[in-house]
């Protein structure tokens, strides 16, 4: 069987969309459609049901999905075995990580990888926990980095490599920034700007607010740290943010010391079912080393 058909099938399954799969594979949509139809003919069953919400796996497709991935993993392992004698690690390595780690922690890792292994091409993809776990599982990511106190049970290898400091911030001069302790009742009129669902430390603060306040907290969610920070700096409310992201440019905001937050583990995620190229191994080593050299802050 032509493994390009399996790659196309898994890409459409990943995105539930033929156009998105074509973009990912750098193919014309007509080529993606033709490959799926050819695979359906070979297997003797339809694989996707097209609906207004996307292309969804049929029952037959669900039964072969894991086997298709295993076949591609075997192909990948064979290619690694052939290239195993190569002295210099090379190739693309895709890392998914939260925005703050991509922006403030991983640039030093990119520089170190480029210095040690110039033939490795390292790509960063901003991803929340769910996206990172899904990406490593479906092979769209080689490595995931998540900031989670307690990650979900998974077949993936998820190891703590460091910690990320987070804190609650307000605009400079806000009364709460001068208080050593804060009662929940003092927060009932505050607006909180949190990162979108799936951000572990934002979700944890939302749970604490929901339990501690007499009424539902006033919360606005953003997909960007800079957007949340801008609202705080403008005096519109409070936000829980990575300390590294805020201390890189600290003017206009200050910590709220009366609302301490725990350090959150930074965890490296890989799939043990998939053979790791030397390039992926070396990038994992550099990331882990960077975290070990700065244990109180995570990476960088």
Automatic annotation (TrEMBL):
Signal peptide: none annotated. Coiled coil: none annotated. Residues 1-58 form the HTH lysR-type domain. GO terms for molecular function: DNA-binding transcription factor activity; transcription cis-regulatory region binding. Keywords: DNA-binding, Transcription, Transcription regulation. SUPFAM superfamilies: Periplasmic binding protein-like II, Winged helix' DNA-binding domain. Belongs to the LysR transcriptional regulatory family. This is DNA-binding transcriptional LysR family regulator. It comes from Nesterenkonia sandarakina. The lineage of its organism: Bacteria, Bacillati, Actinomycetota, Actinomycetes, Micrococcales.
């Amino acid at each position: 069987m032509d493994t390009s058909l399996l790659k196309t099938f898994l890409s459409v399954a990943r995105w539930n969309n033929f156009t998105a799969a074509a973009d990912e594979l750098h193919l014309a949509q007509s080529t993606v459609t033709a490959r799926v139809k050819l695979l359906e003919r070979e297997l003797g069953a339809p694989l996707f049901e097209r609906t207004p919400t996307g292309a969804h796996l049929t029952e037959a497709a669900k039964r072969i999905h894991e086997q298709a991935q295993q076949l591609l993993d075997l192909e990948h392992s064979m290619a690694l075995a052939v290239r195993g004698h190569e002295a210099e690690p090379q190739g693309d390595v895709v890392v998914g990580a939260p925005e703050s780690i991509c922006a403030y922690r991983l640039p030093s890792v990119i520089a170190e990888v480029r210095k040690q292994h110039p033939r490795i091409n390292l790509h960063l993809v901003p991803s929340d926990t769910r996206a990172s776990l899904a990406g490593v599982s479906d092979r769209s990511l080689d490595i995931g980095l998540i900031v989670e106190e307690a990650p979900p049970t998974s077949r993936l290898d998820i190891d703590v490599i460091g910690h990320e400091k987070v804190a609650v911030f307000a605009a400079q001069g806000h009364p709460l920034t001068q208080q050593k302790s804060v009662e929940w009742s003092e927060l009932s009129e505050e607006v909180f700007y949190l990162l979108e669902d799936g951000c572990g430390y934002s979700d944890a603060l939302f749970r604490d607010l929901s339990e501690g306040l007499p009424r539902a907290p006033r919360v606005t969610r953003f997909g960007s740290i800079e957007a949340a920070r801008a609202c705080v700096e403008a005096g519109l409310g409070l936000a829980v943010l990575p300390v590294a992201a805020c201390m890189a440019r600290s003017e206009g905001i200050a910590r709220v010391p009366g609302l301490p937050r725990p350090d959150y583990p930074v965890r490296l995620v890989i799939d043990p079912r998939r053979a790791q190229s030397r390039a992926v191994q070396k990038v994992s080593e550099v990331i882990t080393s960077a975290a070990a050299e700065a244990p109180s802050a995570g990476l960088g």
